[in-house]
Design a protein that fits this description.
Layout (H helix, E strand, L loop, with lengths): L1 E4 L9 E9 L5 E2 L3 H8 L7 E7 L6 H14 L5 E4 L9 E4 L2 E8 L8 H12 L8 E7 L5 E7 L5 H19 L12 H9 L6 H13 L18 E11 L1 H14 L3 H17 L3 E8 L14 E8 L4 H14 L4 H4 L13 E7 L9 H4 L2 E4 L3 E2 L2 E8 L2 E9 L2 H23 L5 E4 L2 E7 L5 H8 L3 H6 L4 H12 L4 E7 L5 E10 L3 H4 L2 E9 L8 H15 L4 E4 L6 H9 L14
């Protein structure tokens, strides 16, 4: 799922509507978490929200959408709480229960020349504030292409996991309403209950307190800051947001295989890359604020709230196992009530330039939505900032990041260079990973996506037999144009296989083909399998096809298919030995 920013969000033009709920007077006071106290205590301000947008497959009646939303609010007590300011200067904000009931749809005008996303930003900035009543809002953009739903909420009540819960429950409720049924969503435990459960935990042991003190002391008495100059950040600056796709699905699978091969998590291997890049560019260890989730038990998996506690990550050794140990330590340090731990500094000692790294592996969450089919996106607010915040999202489409930093010349130069180096380093890990490694007859070969510079060598392989020689021979620009068309479609994988000397040893083109026949079977189409003469007869072709089958299976294919010229008797025998059956007649005609 992509992470984006409301300034970068692309929305079609249409009518923008929001649902106004009715909210009663503040009721019973509830416990406030450490992070809520910091966030809400900073006061009402624009840009304190987070949102999730997704497209519905067809038009929906507004009354049905409102009914579904009310069912979601009824399920999650956290969405029926509001904050009020502190009663005295030495006290914190107060959280209250409230009654929430049906309301009405309101159209939010889009001014002449105003972008749709700018209008949406204004709506969420106004509604989703720390002291909003409520501080969340359901919006819908009605367009000719169908409705886009946006759910926004002040961060004090939600986190990224929570936004998935809200989207899932809204879609479930909407399906029930449209089927003429009453939504059946049982209540979930509230975040206030979780806050109380954390308060009831024992205080942090002395070794945890001592480690917090060491890291804060090493950081000059404040939380970790970005290790390179950011320019003038004593006052808040306009933000610059960079969104990058770090690894595609193939490279991500290879990178994860590399992590498994080293006995660590994917996160630990990314931390290893960040550690090495930081040491190379800044000559410092990697130090960052590191949010960790606090949904320790399944009790909280379906709840909505800010189930995040801040920890600190310090990694001085880029060895993956050392980085894994650093991650483990950070999780342990964030597993204790922080108010008591940070009391010697009067709370969290923040300073301009604070550096934070967030990681979310959507593949491992017990909450799932069809993010690809819904075109779902996490949407961040547009703010002023003096620090660097980095979010990683890992999902079925790969590894993505979003980075927010002050838009100063120095920050552009230094944060940009750090991000460039990080993306390159992680990519290099993936390209050299065990996921694309074949060991044949004692020699190591690597499977990777072909680059444009490989096209000439691949064409030479295709032409290196009596049949290929009669079909190949066009000018190189035609093949390069074909390469461009192939790479624009992620369902294609044009593979190049390299030997230990980095020379081209083989190629094949793999295509994932969804279909309706055979009960909706997805197929792996295999084309253009070739092995260089120096490597034939050693088993490389067999290893390549085995890798291809794994590639297809990982993408949902349950059937592999290929065609080969009837004159290729040896090739037909080869494929038969691998389990392919000559069960169909292949027909071709020129167009």
């Amino acid at each position: 799922m992509r992470l984006t920013n409301v300034a970068h969000l692309r929305l079609p033009f249409g009518r923008l509507l929001g649902y106004d709920l009715t909210v009663g007077e503040p009721g019973r006071a509830l416990p406030v978490s450490f992070d809520q106290g910091l966030h809400v205590g900073a006061g009402d301000r624009p840009g304190s929200w987070m949102a999730l947008s997704f497209k519905l497959p067809e038009a929906v009646a507004l009354d049905d959408l409102a009914t579904a939303w009310l069912a979601v609010v009824a399920r999650h007590g956290t969405l029926r709480t509001v904050f009020s300011p502190a009663a005295a200067p030495d006290e914190g904000p107060v959280l209250h229960e409230v009654e929430v009931g049906p309301g009405a749809w309101v159209e939010h005008p889009i001014a002449p020349g105003q972008a749709v996303n700018a209008a949406l930003r204004d709506v969420l900035d106004a509604a989703c504030t720390p002291y909003g009543r409520p501080s969340h809002r359901l919006c819908v953009l009605q367009t000719a292409a169908g409705p886009t739903v946006v759910v926004g909420a002040d961060h004090a009540h939600t986190d990224m996991w929570s936004m998935l819960v809200i989207a899932r429950d809204l879609l479930t409720s909407l399906a029930a309403v449209r089927a003429g049924e009453k939504p059946a969503l049982p209540p979930t435990p509230t975040f206030a209950e979780h806050t109380q459960s954390l308060r009831d935990r024992p205080a942090a042991p002395e070794e945890v307190r001592r480690r917090w003190e060491e890291i804060i002391t090493d950081g000059g008495g404040v939380m970790p800051r970005f290790p390179m100059p950011l320019g003038e950040v004593t006052t808040l600056q306009r933000e610059r947001v960079e969104v990058r796709d770090v690894l595609d699905v193939d490279d991500c699978a290879a990178f994860s295989a590399e992590a498994r091969d080293r006995g660590v998590s994917t996160l630990a291997l990314v931390v290893s890359s960040m550690t090495e890049v930081t040491q190379r560019l800044a000559e410092q260890p990697l130090r960052a604020v590191f949010p960790v989730h606090s949904r320790y038990e399944p009790t909280w998996h379906d709840s909505v709230g800010w189930f995040i506690t801040n920890s600190v990550l310090e990694s001085a050794d880029p060895d993956p196992r050392a980085s894994a140990a650093a991650v483990k330590e950070a999780v342990q340090m964030g597993s204790w009530p922080l108010a008591d731990v940070l009391a010697p500094w009067g709370g969290m000692p923040v300073a301009p330039g604070m550096f934070a790294i967030s990681w979310l592996d959507l593949r491992r969450l017990p909450v799932r939505v069809d993010s690809a089919g819904l075109e779902a996106q996490y949407v961040g607010a547009e703010i002023l900032t003096d620090g660097v915040m980095l979010w990683f999202i890992l999902d079925e489409s790969g590894l993505h990041l979003r980075c927010r930093y002050p838009d100063t010349d120095e920050a552009r130069r230094n944060v940009g260079a750090w991000l460039d180096a990080l993306v390159d380093h992680v990519g290099a890990h993936a390209r050299a990973s065990a996921g694309g490694r074949l060991v044949v007859d004692g020699e190591v070969f690597r499977v990777m996506r072909a680059q444009r510079t490989d096209v000439g060598a691949l064409v030479a392989l295709l032409a290196d037999d009596p049949i290929g020689a009669t079909r190949e021979g066009a000018e190189l620009p035609r093949y390069e144009a074909a390469y461009d068309a192939i790479t624009r479609d992620s369902s294609h994988y044009l593979a190049v296989v390299r030997d230990a000397r980095d020379e081209v040893a083989g190629t094949m083109q793999l295509t994932i083909v969804p279909g309706l026949s055979r009960g909706g079977t997805t197929r792996l189409q295999v084309e253009g399998v070739r092995v260089a003469p120096a490597h034939r007869g050693r088993g490389l072709g067999t290893a390549m096809l085995s890798w291809a089958h794994d590639h297809g299976a990982a993408r949902g294919a349950t059937l592999a298919q290929l065609t080969t010229d009837l004159a290729r008797t040896e090739a037909r025998a080869f494929y038969t030995r691998l389990g392919y059956e000559e069960s169909h007649a292949g027909l071709k005609r020129p167009l």
